[in-house]
Amino acid sequence: MQKKQYITIGNPIISKDIFRNILRPLDNFSFKPTGGLWASEFISNFNKISPWYDYLKEAKSIATYMLQYKDLKLASIFTLKENANILIIDSVNQILELSKKYPSYHHILTNNNNIIFDFEEISRKYDGIYLNYNNLLYQTTINTFDSWNVNTLLIFNLDCIKEYQTVKINIDFEDYDPLPYIDDKDISMPKEIQAESNTYRKLSNNIKAIYNELEPLYINNKIKNYNEYLESLVLCANKVLEISTITKEKEIHIIKETLKEQGINIDTKIIIRNIVLNYLSNYLNKEKNSIINLEKSQTKERKRYLI
Asked: Which residues of the chain fall below pLDDT 50?
């Protein structure tokens, strides 16, 4: 029996040098986390790729938007290790139980009372989650997973992936009814996930040092509520981003060229932003006990905290 395969669209390589940790939405109104590796089940039938690709064929406006920053003709097919610890979510009761066991204080403190759980906390206990969107669709009026659209695998930890293959998808999104397919010659040999490069580790440590130096200037006793906290934290993160972009240009360039050799062109800003956001994810975890004691945000209008 063939092991189940998954496909992540727009990611021709899976690398720890560009991977982002799971992070809460940096706004006060949405539910979907950022970061992680997003995938759906690979369908090897002719003209079928995956449920997500079928969705993109129909939702062409979303595909057009994604094409601005991702090549939807490139992808990776991967399998999971036998011991991969994947949390399968396929019922309303599970969501309710998870929201009680892992309450999302981000949403509580932004006065967002919809039912959702803390993805960051769950990502420290599981390698990923598999959301059975089809099951949930007919069970609930909970709207927190509406934007997932299809059955989805969200990987938190790349070490649970056994191997992957880079693939090219043949498709013309300009066609009225595009018919995607993958030719055997456009599938690479199996690859393993590589460890973080030395340059990436050094750059991460540099960013941590800058963050620790700047933090007292932004996070202080004057902060009373969660909105003020996020505003200050994001100001600090943006300053770290600015300094790192200027002072670590050589290291960023090395990572960019290495990734290019492996088959992906990625913007310099994304490389450094990913590392800053990874540190932010770790920082929020370290400070979670003090965060939950903050007053709720007083902001009632929709707000984004941009990095």
From this structure: 1
